[in-house]
Give the backbone structure.
Amino acid sequence: MATFAIIAEHPPELCPTSNAQTRQMMNEGAAQIPQLAEQLGVDISPVGPDDIVRGIEQMARGSPSVFNYMKKLLAANNGG
């Protein structure tokens, strides 16, 4: 089974901690995520720093072409 990670970023004005409308939308939509994931056959599991390091280590042991692709992708998303 393939494993993917999604890292979400948002501008300050859309931060749920500072925007009541975004917070409400997030709270209403979040309740639907488990059911949607089940319908799509997707496992959504929160990850911590150890999980991220483990994923990077697995990626480093994989295909050089995949590793280089991910390296470029991450660099592009971080302005580097």
Q: What stands out?
A: The chain has four helices and no strands.
